[in-house]
Design brief:
Elements: E1 29-33, E2 41-47, E3 50-61, E4 74-81, H1 96-109, E5 121-131, H2 136-150, E6 161-167, E7 170-173, H3 177-182, E8 185-192, E9 197-201, E10 204-205, H4 209-241, H5 245-268
The structure holds cytidine-5'-diphosphate (CDP).
């Protein structure tokens, strides 16, 4: 693979980004809920080239016991990048960065959960980055909150997240890897849409007060859009499983029987008489 080259500019003279997006345009986002059959809840996100799977187990008995919280469940998020998720092989041992991201994800998700309903238990959230192309902490929060809902963990709301950054002096939403690496900074954020509460806000690089306020407003708008996609993904998953879906299944079965009849019918069709 050819070594990465620093681009001459991140915003073209036409005002477009490296991948042709407008400054306020998100990468294409695809969610799928219930992708792992053995987990209590799971979800997948593809956000541009960033690809992540989240799995939730619990509430269940907590080990090691010394972590037990008497008044609520312990939310244990583990963010990891696969060794093949980046072009330079990522060392398999958990890095400081992975531990830090695990912590900020926990903090971003916890306010959405009614953990007090499950004292002494643990809710495990395992996040695996399959392919990293920037914005993995936010994409991880998007997928993890869907996986928690899929596991039936009582929640105040889903948690959408996005990073807003700055490239060539322009504020841009949902940074790709090159924008993250060569841009002037980024502000990852997550919100609880039900209350407007901000559960993640970090800043890398320097922004003026006005820029920061505008970036947060852009992030808020993007989060609202992501929240709609999350709800749609959850509905799709439940529609598939709902008993009414049985009627759809029956239709399919009928179609199948029709096909069989047709097949059998054809095979048993009497020879046409001249
Ligand atoms: O992914 P996110 O922007 O939330 O976190 P970051 O710490 O700002 O990392 C930015 C990006 O750097 C990641 O998404 C990866 O694409 C890349 N990265 C990498 O290439 N190799 C690593 N060992 C870690 C991150």
């Amino acid at each position: 693979m050819s070594p990465e080259v620093k681009p001459d500019y991140l915003i073209s003279p036409e005002g477009l980004r490296l991948d042709g997006r407008r400054p306020d345009e998100l990468r294409p986002i695809e969610f799928e809920v219930g992708v792992l059959k053995t987990a209590d809840g799971s979800a997948m996100i593809k956000q541009g080239k960033t690809h992540i799977i989240a799995a939730v187990y619990g509430p269940r008995e907590l080990h090691p016991r010394h972590l037990t919280l008497n008044d609520k469940a312990y939310l244990r998020c583990v963010y990891r990048m696969a060794t093949f998720s980046v072009p330079d092989r990522k060392r398999p041992a958990p890095s400081r960065r992975e531990r830090e991201i695990s912590m900020v994800i926990t903090n971003a998700l916890e306010p959405a959960l009614f953990l007090e309903d499950f004292p002494r238990a643990v809710v495990d959230v395992f996040i695996q980055v399959i392919q990293a192309d920037g914005g993995t902490r936010c994409a991880a929060i998007n997928a993890a909150s869907l996986a928690l809902a899929d596991a039936g963990i009582p929640m105040r709301s889903l948690v959408p997240a996005v990073a807003v950054g700055k490239a060539d002096g322009t504020l841009i939403v949902d940074l790709g890897d090159m924008e993250d690496k060569y841009g002037e900074g980024d502000v990852p954020m997550a919100i609880l849409p039900s209350t407007g509460e901000i559960t993640l806000l970090q800043q890398d690089g320097s922004f003026t007060k006005e820029e920061l306020l505008e970036a947060m407003q852009m992030g808020l708008n993007a989060c609202k859009y992501i929240h709609e996609l999350q709800k749609e993904a959850l509905k799709r998953a439940y529609l598939k499983r709902a008993p009414e879906a049985g009627s759809e299944g029956e239709d399919e079965e009928e179609d199948y029987e029709d096909d069989l009849e047709t097949d059998l019918g054809e095979s048993e069709l009497p020879e046409e008489e001249e």
